[in-house]
Amino acid sequence: MKTKNGFRITTYKKKELACLYCPDSTARCAIRTLTRWIKRNTELYRALVNTGYNVRTRTFMPKQVSLIVQYLDEP
């Protein structure tokens, strides 16, 4: 599935998605940044927790990616 701007909603590794959101950062820094954004956005965090997410999750399922894009916009 794709969004209207062409971003593909599929399964992503946390590192992979984080690097899409923070392309100029190292992978480690990008992961920390994405995790921080998720934690600070309480509505997004709550919605992700309802799908089985926790901070140690290494893979985002399509539903989780869809929620992240909904709250943080496309990378």
Automatic annotation (TrEMBL):
<protein>
    <recommendedName>
        <fullName>DUF4248 domain-containing protein</fullName>
    </recommendedName>
</protein>
<dbReference type="InterPro" id="IPR025342">
    <property type="entry name" value="DUF4248"/>
</dbReference>
<dbReference type="Pfam" id="PF14053">
    <property type="entry name" value="DUF4248"/>
</dbReference>
